[in-house]
Amino acid sequence: MEYRLTKTKWRTLWLAIALLLLFGVHQSRCDILPVKAIHHNNTALHQVLEALAATYPNITRLYSIGKSYQGKGLWVLEITRNPGMHTPGKPEFKYVANMHGNEVVGREMLLLLADYLCSNYGRDERVTKLVDTTRIHLLPSMNPDGWESSKESDCSSVRGRFNANGVDLNRNFPDPYDGQKNELQPETQAVMNWIHQEPFVLSANLHGGTLVVNYPFDNLPRELKRSGTRVYYSSPDDDIFVSISKVYSLAHPTMHKGHPQCPIQRRERFTDGITNGAAWYPISGGMQDYNYYKTNCFEITLELGCCKYPPALYIMRYWYANREALLKFIELVHKSGIRGFVVDEKGLPLEGARIIIENRAKKIKTSKDGDFWRLLVPGNYTVRVAKRRFKNSKKTVTVDPDVSTVVNFTLFRKNSNNFNRRRPATKINGAVELEKPASNVSFHSIVTNRDKLRLAAKSPKKSASVARIPSIVASFICLVLVASLK
Length: 486
Known about the structure:
The protein has helices spanning 7-32, 42-55, 105-120, 125-133, 144-149, 186-197, 222-225, 238-251, 277-280, 287-294, 315-331, 472-483; strands spanning 60-67, 73-79, 92-97, 135-139, 200-207, 210-215, 274-276, 298-305, 338-344, 354-357, 363-365, 371-374, 379-386, 393-399, 405-406, 409-411, 425-428, 431-434. It is α/β, with parallel strands linked by helices. The strands form 4 sheets. It has an 8-stranded mixed β-sheet with strand order 1-2-4-3-5-8-6-7, with helices on both faces. The protein is globular, with a radius of gyration of 26 Å.
């Protein structure tokens, strides 16, 4: 005897399926959010980011900046009101973590920070203001391949530090003194493309192994290296880097004391919990130096603790120690230096106009919308704006504490008759080249490194945050509906 369902029973069946799926998805997100104090593997990390993006679609956007050596996605969560593109006048900020695969605290801090910002938006005035006025980008893992090789409770070894091609990513950026010591890795190239695409103002790179804030410069000229003594090699904006580094260290309950008391370096001391990179130990090809040399972005490095891969039970302790400091550091984009727009006489934005501070070598450039941010400590400054084919503009500006001073510029075009004059050519070693504007830094050609530490392509599996089964109530409802079909 053939049995057929009536239209009513078909509707009931489809309703049961829909309820099962609906409750299943909801329960799955509930299992992931709020973010747990565990070590998330790469799959679980991506699940958390996807859950945040799905739960808070009005203030988040999940995007990839590229792939690792083994093809894993480098996922970034953008958090801001109306995400998706740069908003003129809204500063761009980024946190990058897990650059060394075995230094995992930062990766968990960024997941907890993302959850904190999203879940408190519209509830907490401070968080709401920060998300409304800042475009925040969080990259929890720059080195997912290295993480796969690392091991929980391994506090001091280098297992998992390098990417899957055996390269230390924080020695892989183009360097003004040593060139390119290793072949450029896909993770490095992805970050370089990213920071040149977005007009980042401020950034921090989260590491582990001690407790200190490290600021540029990390490297120094070879003649100083050969001296064999530690050298404080300051950037032209050393006062700014010291100031913003102290904001983080002083907001941390113990970092500012300057006594990490790590087992390997018990006698290590850092005044106010901060250090110049080269004075600590010089490195070549560091990411924070590259940010400063080649972009508008000011980046520092945060060493969050002595143990690189601590047991999961310590994660919440790290979170409570760093939460306030992480928030205060983001807020610096609104409390330091000058900001504004550069336009032409018709009010149209001017991209690429140089913002020059008298007696400071570092220059920044306006974005495509004509907006700019220039971090400065409180004081009086002469600011000059220059762009080819436009007359320079100069203003004297007072920068007050805890506020970003607004200063706008209008540039007027030069006499158009001068535009047709060709720029003179410069003869170099018998070859004729068009004269180019001088650059603060000259980067050298790539030198291939002969020796690479290879990591196994396969690595031990780790536990993931697995979505649980749908709720009992939903399952019961579905069973009742299906039973009614008989």
